[in-house]
Structure formats: C-alpha cells, structure tokens
Inverse folding.
C-alpha cells in the first residue's frame, strides 16, 4: 500500500468509531474529491482546531469570547441548564423548547478516569450564581453512574445558593443513556416534566 495512503488511514483511525475499513473508505473518498474541496476540508479542520474558543460565560464552543446563546438578549437569563458536553447543549437546542442559558461542565466526575470536580467548569457555574441573576438551575446530565455522582456533587454545591431553584430533567431518559443520542421528543418531554430537587 502507498505510504501516503497508509499515513492518512492511520490518522483517520484516531477518530472515535473509525476502524481500518472505515478509514480506508474515507481516504478513498477524499482522494476522489476535487483538490479544492479536499483543501477546503483540511483548512476547515485546521482552523476549527486552532481558532475555536470556549465561551467565557458558559464554556460552550464559540468563535469569540461569548457564544451566540450568551450574547442573545432575547433569552431567559434567569434560567441556566447545566449539561455535560456541547453535544448535549445542541441536542436540547434542536428541540426548540428551551429559551434559557446553558452551562457546559466539560464532562462528568469519573474517579476511574481521573476526572474530579476541579477538572470540570463547576467553579465557573458558581461564579455565575453569585451575580443573583439566575433563579433556576436545570441539571440535564446523563443518568450514568458518573452522571449521578456529578449530580450529587452539584446538589451539595448548590446548597450554598438557597434562593436558586434547582431541578433536574424528568427521567424519561433511560438509565445509562447519553443525552447526545436521545431523540428530540424524549428530551422535550423530559424538559417539560422536570422536577424540583430538595437541596437540604
């Protein structure tokens, strides 16, 4: 096999879910592209990796200091929905049912993987609550063991803000499901039927 083809396939296999066959299929597809299209793809990936930023307010991906959601003055600034990853934020946004703000933790607490509370953007969330503008925090994280551990930790942290209502999305989402892969109708139902959590 060509060394160039072998190199491309090896790099493509670094992507999640891409094995040898898929990598070869993608490489051959790239080879069939017009040169300008392939160059545009490579340029977009390079710019995305090197120029993307995290919103200084909510930790969402952004092209500038504040993401479009945090910059939108029409959104309900008294409600913040806490999610694990940007993909979860996008899943909720796609329902069109939520018009508040978000907070992206950047993962969940997982001692097995060496991820502790300090590795997540929990302190950034606490800073937002200090302003007094937020009246409700909706916790919308996965129902995995790690997700439940993170929920328990967040509830303990949020006890420090007695004026802030805390709710979780309704558990219409199966245990162990990743929010990213849940259909929009289920997410809509879960958001509408969220329940308040007793902090004390």
């Amino acid at each position: 096999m060509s060394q160039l083809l072998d190199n491309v396939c090896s790099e493509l296999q670094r992507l999640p879910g891409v094995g040898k066959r898929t990598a070869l299929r993608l490489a051959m597809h790239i080879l069939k592209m017009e040169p300008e299209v392939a160059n545009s793809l490579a340029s977009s990936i390079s710019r995305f990796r090197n120029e993307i930023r995290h919103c200084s307010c909510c930790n969402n991906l952004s092209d500038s200091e504040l993401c479009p959601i945090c910059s939108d003055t029409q959104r309900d600034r008294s409600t913040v929905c806490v999610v694990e990853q940007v993909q979860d934020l996008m899943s909720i946004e796609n329902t069109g049912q939520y018009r508040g703000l978000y907070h992206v933790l950047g993962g969940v607490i997982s001692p097995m993987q060496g991820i502790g509370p300090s590795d997540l953007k929990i302190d950034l969330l606490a800073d937002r609550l200090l302003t007094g503008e937020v009246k409700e925090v909706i916790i919308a994280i996965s129902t995995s063991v790690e997700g439940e551990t993170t929920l328990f930790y967040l509830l303990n942290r949020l006890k420090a803000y007695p004026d802030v209502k805390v709710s979780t999305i309704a558990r219409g989402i199966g245990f162990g499901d990743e929010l990213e892969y849940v259909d929009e109708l289920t997410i809509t139902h879960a958001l509408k039927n969220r329940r308040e959590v007793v902090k004390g």
Q: What stands out?
A: The longest helix spans residues 35-51. Residues 3-51 form a domain with the Helicase, Ruva Protein; domain 3 fold (CATH 1.10.8.420). Residues 26 and 169 are 38 Å apart (CA to CA).
